[in-house]
Each structure stands twice: as structure tokens, then as C-alpha cells.
Amino acid sequence: MDRVKALRLDRLLSNMGYGSRSDVKKLIRSGKVTVNGEVQRDEAEHIRPDHDRVSIAGTEVNYRQFLYFMLNKPAGVISATSDATERTVLDLIEPAERNKGLFPVGRLDKDTEGLLVLTNDGDLGHRLLAPKKHVPKRYIAVVSGKVTPEDIRAFHDGIRLDDGYLTLSAKLEPVQPGDPEKGDPAEVIVEIHEGKYHQIKRMMTVLGKKVLYLKRISMGGLMLDPDLKPGEYRELSAAEIQLLQNES
Ligand code: URA
Asked: Which of 3, 41, 75, 180 is the 20 to 30 Å CA partner of 111?
């Protein structure tokens, strides 16, 4: 059985960033496109990407059905595909790759940094975000005040948020407990298994603390690449895509 569905030649080329459907139609009609070595001038020709070799002016097109990127989201951009006034995570993606139906898998607040997956694989995205999946997400947080054993227990037991929702059991691991007398904030690792609006900030608020900095470092088995500076992104490796598939 074919792993990748057959699709029209013009769609394949436009999905791969060779221009709009009308641009690629012109390209095909110009006779520069070959399929399995033969010139193909019919844009409606069905291509089986697993079998057929498509070339443009002698250069083979390396077809991939889906794109998967890991972005180190910087503060100051919103996790949306477009917005009338704000910069979005899509604005950080190269223009040639931007118009391929990419969307962020989940949301980070505007001031939160770190791991954000962008893909055009709708099935995987929706499976990862399904509330019942409880995919673990880990964050580094800097918070005001001192982290106590009671706070760790409260995270473990679940915290009742301002709207009455009781969070699932979460982990709070102090890296630096913080010393309010010296004005030193605490540094912690937080692991949550759901993604309510402003969840970590609201959990900390209930405990009388304020989140000063928040960065996501992993989602399921996928870790943020430490070589990516804020605003940088790269494609996921096949092994990393597999980690997400296993999670979903
Ligand atoms: N929790 C928050 O409060 N903000 C985020 O961006 C992610 C988790």
C-alpha cells in the first residue's frame, strides 16, 4: 500500500513551494517538468510521490507530504498563524515555507519562550493537543518568593484555579528555592500534563507567587535543541517526528 496519497502534479509542486497553482501550471505547460523522465504538460496528472520521480529542468523534486519544525519561540510573538496587529510565530518562518499550511501545535503565551512545534500535519497536531492525551510538558520558570515543600505538594495534589478548575497532578522541582530576604527569585522546573490558559502562571498565583520568566523545554519526549537561539528554528529529524507520533 502507498504511504503517501496520489496527488495532482500542480498541487504537488505548489505544496513544495514552487509557486501558486497558476505559477506551477505555467511551469508545467512550458515543458520543463518531467515525470519519470518524460515531459509532462498535464497539470492534472496524478503523481504517486512514493513511486514517481518528478524533476524540474533536470533537478529532482524531493517531495515531502508534511513539514515539522521545532521553533525556539522568543518572547514578544504570539502563537497564531496570523494577526492584524501582533507578530506571530509564522512571521519567524522563511517566506518560502510559510504558506504551506503550517500551524503551531498548542500555544505559548506572548511572553513565554521555548519549544513550539509547527507543522502542517493536522492529524498529528490534533492528536497531540487532544485533552485526553495528557502529553507532559516541561518548563523552566523563574518565580518570585520561596518555593516550599507545601508548594511541591500542592502541585502534586492539583491546584484549584480562579475559575474553580482543579488541575491534574503536576510536578514542581526546585532548582534554586529562592530567598525573598535577599531578593533572589526561585528557579523551578514545572511539568504539567494539560494546557489550560495561562496555566502555570495561574497555579503560581494561587500559591502567592508571580512568574517572572517561563520557557518550555520539552513536550513528550521531544526536547528543545539547546543550539537554537530564541527566534531560530529547524526541521525535526525523523527520530524526533517518531517521538511525537509515539506520544499522540
Ligand atoms: N503556562 C503559562 O502560564 N503560560 C504558558 O505559556 C504555558 C504554560
From this structure: 180
Q: DSSP secondary-structure letter at 151?
A: H
**What is the C-alpha to C-alpha distance for residues 31 and 39, in angstroms, rounded to an integer?**
6
* pTM beyond cutoff 0.90: no
Reported as a single tens digit per residue, the pLDDT across 41-66 is 999 999 998 889 999 999 999 888 88
Contact 29, 41 (CB under 8 A): yes
Report the atom number in ligand 1 closest to the C-alpha of 137.
Answer: 8
108 lines ligand 1 (CB under 6 A): yes
- Ligand 1 centre distance from Cα of residue 215 (Å): 8
Domains, the chain, in order of start with CATH, read: 7-60 (3.10.290.10), 68-131+222-247 (3.30.70.580), 137-219 (3.30.70.1560)
